[in-house]
Description:
Layout: E1 10-13, H1 20-30, H2 38-47, E2 53-57, E3 60-70, E4 73-84, H3 93-109, E5 113-119, H4 123-135, E6 140-146, E7 158-163
Parallel strand pairs: 4-5
Antiparallel strand pairs: 1-2, 2-3, 3-4, 5-7, 6-7
Helix pairs in contact: 1-2
Amino acid sequence: MSDTDTKQSISVSIPTLSDGADIWRLAKATGTLDLNASYTYLLWCRDFANTSIVAKVDDTLVGFITGYLRQEAPTTLMIWQVATHEQMRGRGIAGTMLNQLFDRCEQAHGVSRLETTITADNEASIKLFTRFGQNRDMTVNREPLLTSELFPDAHDTEYLYRIG
């Protein structure tokens, strides 16, 4: 990504199967997301495209959000992963993606709530989701969901954020 890329306009859209490899590459490049097999991201773009979103400059992927509707709570959009290319951070891309994704899911699926899990040290995500709730005048609740002792490897507690 060059400096000229950061000055171009950003478009957001539903991911396609051909975006899966770039989503995997960006997830890997963050160095902070739990990286899943590339196969997972390809299937995600096939099976959960309508509840996910990508951001691009021209044809270059610069951000993504993966989400799904909870089977037990079909009006709840669960956000799984959020990533923005390092050189594109601080431009509000994650917030734009989150708002457009929620609006699309609200319209298409009757979504009225959002959930995500965040570790206590992930200040950027805490800020993103808290601001999302505040801007929409929705309540934001937090509670431990996946405590560290549940993980088979070293992993911090994931706190469930319920918004709405």
